User: Fold these one by one.
Assistant:
Number 1:
Amino acid sequence: MHFQLTDEQRALRDGTRKLLDGRFGRDRLRAAVDEPALDRALWRELGAAGFFALRLPEEAGGVGLGLPEAVLVFEEVGRALLPGPLVACELLAGVVDGVAAGERTAGLCDGSAEAVLWEHPADCDELILVEGGGRDAAGAPGRAAGVYRSAPDRVACAPLTSVDPLTPLARVTDFPRGAPLAGPDPSRLRREAALLTAAQQVGSAVRTVETAVAHARERTQFGAPIGSFQAVKHLCAQMLVRAEIARSAVYAAAVTEGAMDVTGAKLLADEAAVRNARDCLQVHGGMGFTWEADVHLHLKRAWLRAACWGVAAEAEEALAADLLG
Amino acid sequence: MDLAYTEEERAFRVRLRDWLASVLPTLPARPDPRDWPARRAYDTAWQRMLHDAGYADVHWDAAPTIRLIFLEETERAGAPYVGANFVGLLHAGPTIAVEGTPAQRQRWLPPVLRGDEVWCQGFSEPDAGSDLASLRTRAVRDGDDYVVTGAKIWTSHAEVADWCELLVRTDPDAPRHRGLTWLAMPMDAPGVTVRPLRTLAGTAEFAEVFLDEVRVPAGNRVGAENDGWRVTMVTLSFERGTAFVGEVVACRRVLGALARAARANGRWDDAVLRRRLGRLNADFAALWRLIQWNVSEAGAAPAGRGASAAPGKGGGVPGTGGSVFKLRYSHARQELYDAAAEVLGAGALDAGHEWVADRLSSLSYTIAAGTSQIQQNIVAERILGLPKGR
């Protein structure tokens, strides 16, 4: 057993971090807050770097890597708070033409969710809806489980002001369904979407620990760095514990691809990202409450991701049922 | 990033499983937990069986993954715990293996591996708990002996131990970490008094040890005089990591039993309880993965890093990663048994119930081997690099 990153996986992680640092640093992040339209040039660049074709076989022009590698890349994405329909494009690269190269974009909606949310509605060239394939297997009453596609202009939406300034949202009210697509399997798509979302949560959780620690070393009160006070230290220590536990769960789920492993990993990663962002905010004190600090961007995105591809209540029920299985 | 076991690791597992299946039915009944001599006899007999079957030094020489498999399989099979052999196998033994002279290794290690001798630990004192370096038990050199006077506390198996790994102050004028020395003290030496301490669970799981001018031969000193803090740290770092493998396996089994009990008694209909159990399922699954992660890391550690603290060639010490693990595990264990109480309802007031006894003992987990508060300081200062301070 060697449950550690291989040298190649380390190189992939480091390379991704470097690419994102260079192309989506803090200035670009803050610019995206003011102007959330997708940066198509960046998208094409990511496509050219093999970002979306990561898991496509080499004979199909892909990079030929597996789910663990995709998880490492998405951890970096979460760390950088890179916006866009990333999970959708990663999973649909072999389904929708042009997505693998970053030339076109696709969105992915969970048709079985309480509210069918569509991320970046103005920037998707195509919309895919996955119906059913969850724990209950079947879709909503009267609908067959399956994966459906639609041209975005045929989808009816209600507007929604997204809590996350980096992720515009619409609420889908009507999605015209044709015959289901033959290729993708709904439960697999759902599982992988949950896992890649969880990977981003881990990246965010790790980043907010680092941000909190950096601030706690820098900020001086009562004549000492606030990080020398145990009350602050212990907040930071618990943040690391959450991030590391979630990371182990997410990496393991990437290796096993087991449904319960993914469900548990998403639950813990959601919690790590949300609670770490809140603790990071707390460590920042008043500045943490400002628009100018980046902390709220992590928190809001963490909330959004926690609401996608399996929420805590569903996950806990599924994991409870698993104990009896 | 791979969770598959190698052929060698799988073969070890199969061989061990077969052996356990053949010997466990031949074991005598478990002793009364209040009968210390019987417990010692039972635990050491088990160690002797492991020794004769070639598993004696699995904690020392084996690669961390082999150790993990050993602990996982023995727990699954319901084999006896390390029990009275704990300090010898996991604390004093590894310390002597790394820091002892060849003669000391020859004198003390084989009896530990054979289950012939039992060790206990004399580190903590009534006034030196988390702040271990403030300990005051004095050792004064007199000819070929040290004369030791003081008091130790939280000493498990003191009533039945042959030896005590003892941390004493030899230079009261030196900076506090620099005046300590590590001694192997025979427990039958004149001046040693053992007083059992009753825990809140009602049982006497450890003792106070009073030392009144106890003479310990200078040849029983491991490491240099006044270098005892460093020698001791070698031992302490060995405590974290794979130590909890068997317990996590056991917790996951208990969790399944809780779910079945809740369904049988109707409490499964309570969504709040159900969701708590589901959450614990995720928690313990993740803790298991973190063990696998830490063990893989220890196995991959280059010689000279973790390996310096491990007696064996394949060793490596789960270091600060162990603090992250213990912080979550100790609380998760308490949450597990709180959930058990919820499942039991009024039955949670029956101290005779196994889960209630385990609930009581779980209260020590956030205190023993470094309180959660100390662990958080360790994580914050040594991993995150936050400045020391109060």
Number 2:
Amino acid sequence: METISLRQMRVDQTGTIVSIKAAGELGRRIRDMGLIPGKEIRIQGKAPLYDPVSLRIMGFTLMLRNNEADHIQVEV
Amino acid sequence: MGIAIALAGNPNSGKTTLFNALTGARQHVGNYPGVTVEKKEGKYSDDIGEFNIVDLPGTYSLTAYSMEEVVARDYLVNEKPAMVVDIIDASNLERNLYLCVQFLEMGMPVTIALNMMDVANKRGIEIDHKKLSKLLNIPVVPTIARKGHGKKKLLQAIAAKSESNIEPLKISYGQDIDTALDEMEDMIKSSGFLTNRYNARWTAIKYLENDGQVKELGSKGDKNLDLQLETIVEKVTKHLAATLDTHPEGMIADQRYGFINSILKQGIIKRYHDENRLQISDKIDKVVTNRFLGPIIMIAIIMGLYKFTFSYSEMPVSWFESFFGWLSGAVDSALPEGLLKSLIVSGIIDGAGGVLGFVPLIMFMFFGVSLLEDSGYLARMSFMLDRIFRMFGLHGSSVMAFIISGGIAGGCAVPGVMATRTLKSPKERLATLLTVPFMNCGAKLPVFALLIAAFFSENEAQMMLVITLIAWFGALIVARILRSTVIKGEATPFVMELPPYRMPTLKGILIHTWERTWQYIKKAGTVILGVSIIIWAMMTFPGLDENQSKLFEDQRAVITSQAGYAILSDIETLESDQLSAQASAVKDNLSRVDLDEAKAGLKNSIAGRIGTSLEGLTKFAGFDWRTNIALVGGFAAKEVVVSTLGTAYSLGEVDPEEKGSLSERLKSAEGWGPLTAFSLIIFTIFYAPCFVTVICIAREAGSWKWAGFSVVFNTVLAFGLSVLCYQVGSVIM
């Protein structure tokens, strides 16, 4: 078990969110979409230019930019 | 009086589908007062009762984060609907309940429509809705909005429940926050702080969540209490940071999800598959958003849309054209020569007919765009394109505004400009606002279609693609320039849902298509017709004075006196192919005089004078005074360019036998060729937005300064580009 940032995850890799460092607007939007500590995620794919990244959480798919994924720590 | 109900829910939860299923065609689309977020209202009535239904904008939460969320919660607070129907995607219960819980915390009466039960079942999800209803203490009705299943039961539940009083839901947010909340709630209650709008605990929560809108209201209402509340918030914030390395906002969100989880854990959901297993949608995405295939498929889809629009709309377009041709022919022979006939034929029928003739084209285009929108493909486009948009200082969501404005040709900059409301960052929004008018809206299409038909008829679809690419590149480069000069600043959060692919419902698409087409027709019917008549007047008055008219009269007299009686009577009675060479020459001379007179009249008119005075400048772009008049008209609405050109040329050529379409006329007209046409296409893409768009920009940007900027900047830019194309082209060709 190690903790890495979401950006570093590979496609099809799974992990559990440990913490979200973002505050303010970005933090709020991330939480509204269900990205909160304890949730399991799986990297679904990356856009043709490797950014943004799409991930699966609670049975639906989200997309976020790499620089946003940096704020999310994941245990893999 | 019907029961007032508000439909709320996450985007992509089937909210609009349910709204359509309930109200059918009996809906009214408008705006919320003061803002440009769309407000849909409709009615439903049967033996259960009468319902007035409002479709609130789709949101994930109720923060002051986006305009949609503020509009939704303001509506609930101000209008106090008898029931909030929260449409919940059954296969996404957990995240969807996040919004539901917030309604309950506000103290709203809520009924859950547990939608898309069929999809959930297919995914191996079973939901005990009765238990969910018991645990949340609100009605829960399973529905399948696409098929209209469950809507009666839903309305029965609403009718039965809508009168009882509701106690706001209280969630435990952990000891620290709960203590602070209790304290704040007491203070708020005892001083009646904002209690006319919100329940006390909700206000307290919003203070802890650092909610901009509520805090602003608070500081305006009771400065003293506002400060006291802020002090408590500050204390809790410090404490949480020190003990748990978090902040109230994060804690509240986590605990809300915790509350939802504690309910779902009691055997609400049964899963027969892993929840994150690959769905069909994900498998499609593996191909459709693939690094190599994705962009190719995207271009193919855009091309396909053009083909669809151009080839399938061809027949109805020609029906429209021949109908209006027949109409003006009928009026032409029924009315005597004079101003009235000129007004009806050249002003009204040519003007409105030329524009309405393109309705089928626009309808087909909207149909295709709705198909992409409703199927979920547009979100994939934004996923694939975000990296590029960000390079130009925009947001992946800008793609929506661009597409609606005509990024896939055929939109309208008016709703496009309004669609920028979903963008939170004022800077990215402003940059989007100012560049979406470069997209090829439905009103520019007739101009392009006309020019393509006349000069590029062999490569219609390719030419449309080229025009689209020029608009996109131009818009993006200008956006980049704006974002690094007049509107500098950091990027905004992107995180958003990638909805599953869905087979769109025909009804949904038809309603959508009809709404947009109707918007266009309304615009064409009112603004365009009005402008057509004004322009007709501008092109007709003041006309030639007596001395000038006499000049032409004299010329005619000279020709007729030289020709002699026999030839003149031949011209009167015989068909043109039966005329002798001499008689033909006389006839040609006479009609040339007529043409010259009409042309002189037009040149002498108000519009002619404007156009002629600008000719010295616009000749560098290849535009003569007629084009100038048309472009000035296009300021009011782009489609007027076509109707004005039509009027200009039908007034200029008086021979009633010549009934060729406008594109045929342009082909043979003096000064026209592919280069002039291309220069005009460039100018049409980039020059000032129509005044309706300009007004919207002023409202959305919050100042007339930006509206004025877009008019002046765009026109100067367009002129520069057109001159460049024309001059370089003239040298090469």
